[in-house]
Amino acid sequence: MKMRHLLCAAMLAFSACIPAIAAEPVEAHLTVAKEVAGPRIEPEIYGHFVEHLGTGVYGGLWVGPESEIPNTRGWRNDVIEALRRIEVPVIRWPGGCFADDYDWRDGIGDPAKRPVRLNRWWGRVPESNRVGTHEFMDLVELLDSEAYIAANMGSMSPMDTSRWLEYMTSDSDSTLAKERRRNGRERPWRVKYVGVGNESWGCGGNMRPEYQADLHNRYATYLHDTLRVASGDGQRDDHLVEVLMERSGAHMDAFTLHYYTIAGEWEDKGPATGFGLDRWAKGLESALGIEERIVAVSGIMDKYDPDKRIALYVDEWGTWHDPAPGSNPGFLQQQNTLRDALVAAVSFNAFHRHTERVKMANIAQMVNVLQAMALTDGPRMALTPTYHVFDMYKPFRGATPLKATLETPRWREGDIELPAVDASVARTADGRVVLALANLDPRRSARVRTNLSGAVQGRILTADAIDAHNTFARPDVLVPTPYSAGGEGEALTLELPAKSIVVVDLPR
Ligand code: AHR
What we know:
single chain, alpha/beta, nine-stranded mixed β-sheet, eight-stranded parallel beta barrel, 25 strands
């Protein structure tokens, strides 16, 4: 037995460590064609979502200018530096459910005079409004990103949203533009995307789709010079998609899908760590289901928008586990393991396969909430395995997906049977072929034979334990390591250890 398997065996009593089976790897075949499979992979597919929820903003991103934690105008430097490395293309804010309970006027002007409100959705804790429009737009600029403002359709009027937009984006001498200048911002900001409500079928107003469609049209009438994003499906509700597309298609530029991966049931999501193979399989089955939902929603959109003018934004996606033991359940804090990393990889691969519609996706959420990029505790920070997948997939941004056929064996756990290998291939603007491969099988390694040739370099993310994760004490348990395969003039075959993600690059 190799050393790492001995270690793994020793750890079995304490964690979900699954020793790889020493048997021959399973065989998969990947045939990559020269033809493109769809339009380019928009960088916004690697977008983010930040909500005033738990420590997602306060503590996780914002510590305030007076803090001893090193910061730039209040935004913590360690997190900002890490986020810069993964090049955040777009940030959706301020919610989520919070957005439909948010009055933008609470978050401007002298911070000392801003009202304190109750965050009714998330823990009923006081919301200081210390982070408001100016601070959020500063974060957007610090990260060289785009703003996606989620506007309140549930509890405010269209005029409130149009005035918020005028405040942010007007270069004129209007009273609102002058107020912005008095509050410290001379130049207008750019707001590229505006969400018209959020989950209007639920926390955004409990509306019937028919009512929402009328309301959407009314709100969208007063939105100028931004992309209008309609609140969409999150409950596998085909009727809602039909109604919105039919009645509001002319008044939207994008329609949204929310899709959460749950390794169990809504009432029994299961722990983020210390789970068994049943929850591993359930989680990945749920993650793979995102593609079926994208296909179903796109199919309905095609009926009303055959030219595909309207984009599909998956503006909330990611894992949702039981809250971390001892944490406030309203804060949605959870650890992030190798399983979450695989969920991210298969989700990206699914987005890449549907670039004709999917033009943006926003992981829920950026820091400390649900499937986060980073976890913080006071001055300490740990990057998550999901962060590393975002980093590994960077070469796919702006690349064009190539047609590929994958023959993969399947594996089984209880009643669940899943493919072992999942793949994505694309051609970058400078002509390189980028290849991502995930082996979902927790026990067997996979040998992937391809019709490509040459030597590839890249990175691999893998571990012995299915719940391997990074902590403040051990932040580097799960980090990508160098990977190479093939040789000059040789047929390219890649060996994937059990439960691993590999991203490689074929030079031109
Ligand atoms: O991301 C957490 C919550 O999930 C969001 O506020 C809401 O839109 C969704 O139900």
